[in-house]
Amino acid sequence: MTLNKSIVARSLALGVLGVLVLVSLGCGRKSWPEAQILAEEFGYKTIHAVREEGCLVIRTALDGKWQNMSRMLLEISDTDTDCPGCPFYPSQEVEVSTEAGNLMQEEEVLIIRLCGLNEGQTYRWRLVAYNVYDELGPVISEVRLTAP
Q1: Element (H or E) spanning 24, and its range?
Q2: Does residue 35 form part of some domain?
Q3: Cβ(111)–Cβ(98) below 8 Å
Q4: Torsion 109-116-91-102 (CA) sign
Q5: Rounded to whole angstroms, how far apart are CA atoms 77 and 124?
Q6: Are 111 and 101 in contact (CB under 8 A)?
Q7: Residue 140's domain spans which residues?
Q8: CA-CA distance, 83 to 125, in Å (whole number)?
Q9: Hey, how many other C-beta atoms are within 10 angstroms of the C-beta on 148?
Q10: How many alpha carbons lie under 13 Å from residue 87 in its C-beta half-sphere?
């Protein structure tokens, strides 16, 4: 009978030890591996704009993973005043693309041309670029002012 008690005690001790090992392995941080999505971001390095012959010509250089840009919009609104703190409500959104004929691209440098503007009008505008990874959200430039 003592042999059976000894076997039972040993089995019980091994069982308790096994449970402790399993519980200790379950401690700590558990999560699925995450993609390094931040490494896929891009932004605006420089933005320069001029008005020439009724057109707004914007030259911008992108920084980071510019190859991930899926599309771009030029948001624009005419204005009578220079009001940096005022909210921006675009009156027009223009799809920027080589197919639309308003974009030339040389690697990370984009040249955007929007024509048909009123020569005497001042405009506020900004660029909005979208990443192929939707979770990163749009890359929005500062609102800029272009006077005649």
Answers
A1: helix 2-25
A2: no
A3: no
A4: negative
A5: 5
A6: no
A7: 40-146
A8: 12
A9: 11
A10: 2
Residue 130: CB partners within 8 Å, gap ≥ 6? 69, 70, 71, 72, 138, 139
In a domain, 84, yes or no: yes
| Cα–Cα nearest to 141, from 80, 91, 92, 76 | 76
User: Which structure tokens are listed for 106?
Assistant: 């040389």
Task: Name residue 129's amino acid.
Answer: A
- Are 15 and 55 found together in one domain? no
Query: Residue 104 carries which side chain, given as an amino acid letter?
Result: M
What integer pLDDT is reported at residue 86 of this predicted model? Answer: 85
pTM: 0.74
Alpha helices in 64-132 (DSSP H): none
Segment 47-102, tens digit of pLDDT: 999 999 889 999 999 999 999 999 999 999 998 777 777 899 999 999 999 899 99
In whole angstroms, give the CA distance from residue 126 to residue 130.
13
Residue range 110-131, pLDDT digits in tens: 999 999 999 889 999 999 999 9
Do 80 and 52 lie in one domain? The reply is: yes
Q: How many helices (H) and strands (E) does the chain have?
A: 1, 9
